[in-house]
Structure formats: structure tokens, C-alpha cells
Amino acid sequence: MRYTRTALTILTLTALAVTTGCSVEKDGGDSGTDASAQCGSGKEFLIGMSQANNAEPYRQVMNDDVTTAAKAVTGFQVVVSDAAQDNSKQVADVENFLSQGINLLIISPNEAKPLTGVVKKAYDKGIPVIVLDRKVEGDAYTAFIGGDNVAIGKAAGEYYAKTLLPQGGKVVEISGLPGSTPAAERAQGFREGIASNPKIEIVATQTAEWLREKGQSVMDAMLKAQPDIDAVYAHNDPMAEGAYLAAKAAGKESAIKFTGIDALPVASGGIKAVEQGRLQATFQYATGGREAIDLAKKILVDCSKDVPKSTTLGTTQITKENAAQVYTELGGKQ
Amino acid sequence: MNSPNPTTVAASPPETPPRRRAIRLPKDRQAIVDNFFRFQSLFGLVAVFLIAIAVSPSRNGENVFLSSGNLANIVRAVSEIGIIAVGMTFVILIGGIDLSVGAVLGLAAVGSATLMVDSGLGIVPTVLIVLFIGTAFGATQGAIVARLGIQSFIVTLAGLQAARGIARMWSGGLGIPIAYGDGPQEAPETFSLLSGSINGVLPVPALIFLAIGIGALLVLRSTAFARHVYAIGGNEKAARLSGVPVRRVRVTVFAISGLLAALAGIIHAGQLNQGSPNDGAGYELDAIAAVVIGGTSLAGGSGSMGGTIAGALLLGILNNILALNNIDANVQLVVKGLVIVAAAALQRLRPRIA
Q1: Which of B91, B95, B110, B345 could form a disulfide with B171 if both were Cys (CB 3.0 to 4.6 A apart)?
Q2: What is the pLDDT of residue B1?
Q3: For the segment B144-186, what is each residue's pLDDT rounded down to a tens digit?
Q4: In angstroms, rounded to a whole number, what is the distance separating the alpha carbons of residues B48 and B67?
Q5: pLDDT at site B24
């Protein structure tokens, strides 16, 4: 069997190639030029924004927030890269930023573990690093800014307990991607929030993986199984909108109340849905983009050495009363 | 030998007009043209390299693109796709396609992490087991293609789904972090060398890519196996009639593709300190792009390994120079699309002139 032998030879060679790590050094030894320019006003600064993926609306808004806020600071120039949900690509993106000689790195990591190394590399080179929304491991970064999903879920729960269903009622929960931390935390917080009102009952929980179309089909099924639903708690706005569409098709949209989370200031986002009456409320999950640029300004322009290592962003409850106003405040385009 | 009679040509039925107009060139110029197309991707690579130098931003008077750190980044970033593309070249040469490689990469990354961290195996058994899984997966697909006569597009599309499913089951759907040390839940420190570099310059994955590339180049240049591969891609029936063991070659080719995808997965896990079931999503398309830019015909039968290696590097340089110049991520995708089409268009031109 000649080919078996060929394949076996290649197998042995590849195995050898991987397992023999002869005189190899680990990375981090390239003591290049210190990339961080002197801080101070009246200087030019290049900021690299490494985004995990540009495909989700939330991340688009985050990019917009960063670039818009940076435009207001003289001397700030921002370049944005898109890792397209690929950890490898995001590592390469940051490496490219380092080659370009950025003065500060803002990164929203696709996943913590794979990005920890390259973030540390940048930090060790003396480049300030602001980590947004998702964390990296260890403490080799300058600052972390992110929302608190438990707190947001709790705020939603309290709204149900006191305002939306004070007399109690049957709630179905449409949850995000199983295994993802935001889904788990938004579920946990909600249960803490409704605890004060024992008459509220979660009668069913189904996942729609953050997706509008899945929200619709899941709600469709739940309407058949649960004829008297009072409200739908969805872990994000698109799923709440999908559930609304299913209820509308069944002619039950006015009997059921819908809430979402995220409140993106875009035409297809939750704030508009609240304003137009499809959702009762939504809860803002801030991108942290503007806060990141504020921090960058402190570090680069004001030469501040004392920045908070971790900033937790609060949430805003959006109902019909404040929807239009919040939309404008968050820089939403008509 | 009679030279073709012009009158017979004129008398040939008009309903089959020559679709490709042959241009006859003098012999010496013919050789130049032939060589140009043979080394198309190499010329392309050199051209893109020169353009990259020319348009590179400079920093403190230094050409950023040419800095050793940047060049190392390029080869490091391209090595996984490059290794997959080497295997893909064999498959495409026999007129097949392997869509499962990205998913097999993910499966191998999960396997590497689980075996070392959860099962506490050493590096050598882990690598051997993972490479074996990849090879077996590829060989199974090859056997289904060869025995049942189903198109490889379908078989490997199914394989893609299956490999992702197995990877998700194996890992519980989440990435498995790899910590290093001597403890029970830790991988041996040596494995982290995959994210290191030799003398602080040449990244280890790039070195492995180089070794695999040269090995495959030699295999494809001078073995009976290679002649069989080309023969099957050129004309399967003729190959079978002239005694080529078509089935066995098929199985071997897919086995090699699976093996190299698994190798890329091991490197992936080592570079990122994690094995995630979603790793390598879409890598199959990048690998196919590298092969196509390298001048290998998707119809099979013609192409070269050198072309694929050049194609992979070209893609890497293109990604890098676009990023260094802060070209918008969406524009980058369009540019990559145009380059792939241009490479394929050049190949279409080839038979017309030759």
C-alpha cells in the first residue's frame, strides 16, 4: 500500500514538526520602539479600535459611538478593524495596529482567552489599552468599560413587578444564545427583579439565540401552548420584535405586553419600537464607546495617570414617555 | 505528420464555431507566455509585494510594511490557511473540493485542548491522536466520494456539519481555555511554543507551513502519486483505463486534506491558548481562494503547489497592506473578491493564447 505509506510518512513528519520545539523563544522579546508618544494637548494621536465583528447592529453602534466621540477631540484619529468573529483575525488586527504605531488601543474582544496575549503585548509595549464590553484575562490592560447585565435584567424585573404587571401575571421569557454570559445574566437579574411580586409567574422560557426570526417562530409555538400570556420578556429587542410579529399574526398583540433590552439608537432598534408602541419598554445596554474616548482623552491629552481600572455602565429605562428624547440624546439618526 | 489542411478547417460545420480563438505565437515567445502563466501567481506575489512596499505608510522614516515585525505577522497570520490550502490543492487537482477543512480545524483545536487539559495527555500523544482524527475524517469522506460516487462538494458539505457537531458535543459548546504548567488541568509549557518564534523573528507556525509547503512541492513534483493525481483530474476515465488506482488516490487525497486541516487546528489552539468549536469558520473559502489565486483550475488536472503557496502569501500581504492603510473593512472584502476574479480570469486567458 504505497499511498498508506505516503500518508503515514506525512503524518510522522507533521507530528515531528509540531512536537519538536527545538531552540525556540517565546514572543514578547522584540523590544521595539516605545510606541506611546508623549501625552499632552495639541498633539496628534492615532487610536486603534479593534472590533470583534461588524455584522451586529450593536457593534456598529459601538463603532459609531467611538468615531463620533473621537471627532470631537482635536488630534484624535481612529482606525477601526473588523475581526469578523475570528479570534485569529483579531490577533492579526491588533498586530497590524502595533506595526502602524497606534498611541492607544480600544478593543472589544471576540473571546477572552485568545486575545489576552496580544492585549498584554500591546500593554507591555507601553500602549494604553481600553477593553470594551467583553473582558480579557489577567490585568494587563489599562481600563475595562462594560455594562452590567445582571443589573439590567434586575431593572427589567423591577419594572415588571411595579409598573408593567403590578397585579401579577403570566410571563414568557425569550432568552439569548444558550451558554452566552449575557443570556445567563439577563435571566438571573430578571428573576431577582420580579422576586418582590410573587404574583408574577414565568410560565415558559425558550431560546431564540438573539435572532428576530427565531423570536417569531418561538413565540408562535408558545402562543399555541400558552393561551393566556400577559407579557413577553425578551433578552434583546430583535427577539421582542419577532415575538410581537407572531402575536400580531395571531391577533393577540394588544393583549400582550412586550419588553426588550439593548435600546440601540438606530431606525431598526428598540427605542423606535417603543416610540411606535410595539414594545412597552426597553433597557439600554450602553456600548461604552463614548466613555472609552473620554478615558482616552484623559490618558492621552490630560496625561492622567489615575484612571479607573473598571467602569460599570448604568442602564436607562426607555418607555413611550422618554423614547424620543433618549433617541436624540444617544445620537440616533432619523 | 500532415499539417492541418486549411480547406478542411473551413469546411468544418459552422454550427460549432471555435469558442476559443487560438493565437499562434513564435516558439520563443510561446515559451515566454507559457512561463508567464505557469508562474502567474509568483509574478502576482512579487507585484503585490512591490506595490505593498510602495504604498506602505512609513513611521519614523521606516517602511512599516517591510519592518521585520510586520513581515513576521504576515507569515504567522497566513500559515494556518496556507497549510489547509496545501491539502486543498491535492483535492482540487483531482477535480474535487473539500468544504470540511475549517470545521475539521475547529474539531482539532477542541481535541488538542480537551486531550491536554481535561485528559492530561502529553503533547506527543495529543498531536498524534488529533492528526489521526483529522486523517480518518478526511479518509472517510474520500471513501464515501470514491465508493458511492457522490460529489465531493456534497460529501464534504455534510462533513462540515458533522465535524462542527462533533466539536460542539466534545467541548460542550464552549471554548476550552488552555493554561500552561505542570498541574493536572494544565498543558505542557512546550505547547505554547506554537505562539512563539525562532530568534524572536520567524514564527513557529510559519516554519511549519514552510516545511509542509516544501514537502508537498516535492511530493507533487516527483512521485507516482502526483502523476496519478494529475491524471485523475485531467481525465478520470482515461486514468482508470491506464491503470491508475483511482479510488485509492481519492481516499489518500482527502486523507491528506483532513490531516493538514487537523495540523492547522493544533497550531490554532497553540496560538490562541484555546480550542473553540467555532474556530476556523469560513477558512475553507480562504483556502480555496489561495488555491485559485495560485492558478490551480477548479476543474482539476492543472495547477501547482508553488502557486498555492504564492497564492496564500499574496492573500496575506493583501490583507496586511489594506489594514496598514486603514482601508475600510468592507472595502477590503471587495478588493479581495476582485483579486480572486482577476486571478481566475488570467487562467481563462491562458488556453486561448497557448
Answers
A1: B110
A2: 40
A3: 999 999 999 999 999 999 999 999 999 987 889 999 988 888 9
A4: 16
A5: 67
Say whether B324 and A99 touch across the interface (CB within 8 A): yes
Q: Hey, which bits of chain B come out as E strands?
A: 58-59, 62-63, 176-177, 197-198, 202-203, 274-275
Can you give the residue range of the structural domain that contains B307?
78-349
The complex scores an ipTM of 0.82
> B77–A88: do the CB atoms touch at under 8 Å?
yes
Residue ranges making up the domain that contains A167: 149-286+317-330
Q: What is this structure's pTM?
A: 0.84
C-alpha cell at B185: 488541568
- Note whether residue B354 is domain-resident: no
* pLDDT string in tens for chain B (354-residue length): 444 444 444 444 444 444 555 566 677 777 777 777 777 788 889 999 999 999 999 888 889 999 988 999 999 999 999 999 999 999 999 999 999 999 999 999 999 999 999 999 999 999 999 999 999 999 999 999 999 999 999 999 999 999 999 999 999 878 899 999 888 889 998 898 888 888 778 899 999 999 999 999 999 998 999 999 999 999 999 999 999 999 999 999 999 999 999 999 999 999 999 999 989 999 999 999 999 999 998 999 999 999 999 999 999 999 999 999 989 888 999 999 999 998 888 877 766 554
Cell of B285: 473559502
Are A140 and A107 within 8 A, CB to CB? no
Whether B69 sits inside 8 A of A30 (CB atoms) is yes
Residue pair A183/A236 in contact (Cβ under 8 Å)? The answer is no
Chain B segment 193-212 residues within 8 A of A by beta carbon are 193-200, 204, 208, 211-212
Q: Which residues pair with A206 in a beta bridge?
A: A174
Q: How far apart, in whole angstroms, are the C-alpha atoms of residue A304 and residue A313?
A: 21
Q: Which domain CATH number covers B128? A: 1.10.3470
Q: Which residues of B touch A17 (CB under 8 A)?
A: 208, 211-212, 263
Quick one: CA dihedral B342, B347, B351, B353, positive or negative?
A: positive
- Cα–Cα dist A248/A215, whole Å: 13
Terminal alpha carbon distance of chain A: 70
Q: β-pairing, A317-318 with A310-313?
A: unpaired
DSSP A241-263: HHHHHHHHHTT-TTTSEEEEEE-
**Contacts of A287 by beta carbon, 8 Å cutoff, 6+ apart:** A58, A61, A62, A65, A132, A133
* Same domain flag for A167 and A124: no
Tell me the C-alpha distance between A247 and A218, whole Å: 11
Do residues A297 and A200 both lie within one domain?
no
Q: Considering only CB atoms, which chain A residues are within 8 Å of B199?
A: 25
Paired residues of A131 in beta bridges? A107, A144
User: Domain check: are A129 and A74 in the same one?
Assistant: yes
User: How many domains is chain B built from?
Assistant: 1
Is A14 part of a structural domain of the chain? Answer: no
B277-328: pLDDT as tens digits: 989 999 999 999 999 999 998 999 999 999 999 999 999 999 999 999 989 8
In a domain, A89, yes or no: yes
User: If you count them, how many residues does chain B have?
Assistant: 354
At residue B329, the pLDDT reads 84
| Rounded to 5°, angle at Cα A136 from A130 and A142 | 30
Q: Which three cell numbers stand for residue A74?
A: 482635536
Q: Taking CA atoms, what residue in A is nearest to B177?
A: A113
Does A32 sit within 8 Å of B77, measured CB to CB? no
